[in-house]
Amino acid sequence: MVNPASNASAVTAVRGHLVSLRDNPFVAGDAAALWHEPDGLLLMRDGVIEAVGPWRDLRHHVPDGVAVTHYPDAFIVPGFIDCHVHYVQTGMIGAAGFQLLDWLDKYTFPTERKFADKAYASKVASLFCDELLRNGTTTALVFAASYPASVDALFEQAERRRMRLIAGKVLMDRNAPPGLCDTAQSAYDDSAALIARWHGRGRLGYAITPRFAITSTPAQLEAAGALWRGHPDVWVHTHLSENRGEIAAVAELYPDRASYLDVYDHYGLVGRRSVFAHGVHMDETDFACCHEHGAAIAHCPTSNLFLGSGLFPLRQALDARRPVHVGLGTDIGAGTSFSLPATAGSAYKVGQLRGDALSAPQLLYLATRGAARALDLGDRIGTLQAGFEADFAVLDPRATPLLAFRTAQAQSLEECLGVMMTLADDRLVKATWVAGREAIPSR
Fold first, then answer.
1. Separation of alpha carbons 142 and 89, rounded Å
2. In contact, 263 and 254? CB cutoff 8 Å
3. Per-residue confidence (pLDDT) for residue 205, from 0 to 100
4. Which is nearest to 19 in space by CA: 437, 424, 412, 425?
5. DSSP secondary structure string, 51-99?
6. In terms of pTM, does the model score above 0.90?
């Protein structure tokens, strides 16, 4: 864990094999988009990359007395960005046997009721943040529970670690246990107070967070839209078109709306900082609406497979005629791994099942620069360039005997990256750096 008393203004320097995306490989092609420097240097000041390039060119710029941390046999990539995850579901990963709506009733709602206890919420939030860091994730868009204290607990832990984290209190005033429900007015008031307390504080941001249209009345979605109009620089984070049963239920509750997405659009919740999780069963009209408004989709392959929700049509979402922003989400706890490299590996498999092969640079883009753009943070994070925040992960291609054997056979950087994603778990990440300093999770 990062020591909050450390001198954040100190210069730090890291040397190693730098790998990053300088462009969108889905548009520019892999060769033009993927950048790497086999022996590179990151020079950082005040948590921001000040210079990046070949070691031979920059080594004389390292100030006297600054020790260079060297990772000679590893890959240094931008910190991973999780576009959809539930910290309050950390304790129910692997809860099997149901599809979405029954799974919520059986496992999710009872688990989330525990977060009325601030001490419990703080304990889980600490574990959650450490798991993100252990897996190389430096930024996340996170669901809390419906209790404001669950948001406070998460932000307190993220602030201690100097992470860039966006989160919000769940809005839910129907079709859920009474102990978890709020009202349209209390949801507005509690969210407004949390925005005032946390949004823009350090590297923290707030997301207005209706769980999904099934658990919010029209009055609550109207209140959420009004809240966003009053605070247009926050995010909106919710679920969309994950499961066919869910879509049918939304159609019954909102019969006057043309589609599930149209429900959110009607209440003013579709915009540049809207992030919709899943989007498995969207149609062309929905994708066009997201493109028009700049909204993003969080592709959650391990969750969609685990709950049997379906196969996200990534290529359709990225159609060059009206591309939609897409980033990867682990969706813990329906998702089965905190590792975004492992999640990328599952995205590859989903692509294969749909007949859409994905390359390693494309997958890395979805976990880094593409995810940053999905969150409207593409000018701050997601790539190794001067002026960007100094968040990165150090990947060890020899982390396990099998990985060491297999990567030694790789004929290219792209093949090595792909193998690491296929075989990834938390052992792949040798170190995680946040705001220019190594973050050491508690063991």
1. 11
2. yes
3. 98
4. 412
5. EEEEHHHHGGGSPTTPPEEEEEEEEEEEPEEEEEEEGGGGGGTT--S--
6. yes
